[in-house]
Amino acid sequence: xxxxxxxxxxxxxxxxxxxxxxxxxFVAMLGILIAITLMISFLLKPTDVTAQRLHDSKKQVVSxxxxxxxxxxxxxxRYITDDYKDMNSYIREIKETNRLYSDxxxxxxxxxxPYYAQGE
Length: 120
Known about the structure:
This protein has 120 residues and is α+β, with helices and mostly antiparallel strands. The chain has two domains: 3-44; 57-118, Roll (Membrane-bound Lytic Murein Transglycosylase D, Chain A). The chain contains five helices and two strands, in the order αααβααβ. The chain has a two-stranded antiparallel ribbon. α4 crosses α5. The longest helix has 21 residues, at 24-44. The radius of gyration is 30 Å and the shape is rod-shaped. Pfam families: LysM. The chain crosses the membrane at residues 26-44. Residues 65-114 form the LysM domain.
């Protein structure tokens, strides 16, 4: 912004604000405020850190019979791999695959479990 544009804009402001704007302190304070705002925004930015896959994985499914004492959590614990974000999202996928609307499963029934297997 050149001097004449700045003067035109500031003519519209009250005298005490104009005096403040002409001081170098204003520029320094504005720079500090911008720097702090940028630092805070970078610190608060959410990030997901994931490990890079060293191998190719292919999604597979397996049908298993539900045994006495099995829960979705225990079954998921046997088949989960690092390809899944966390246990809750994996259990959610198992439920969606089997069209389950609750966490209840019954002994003797069958359930399809998706999982990732290492490729060749």
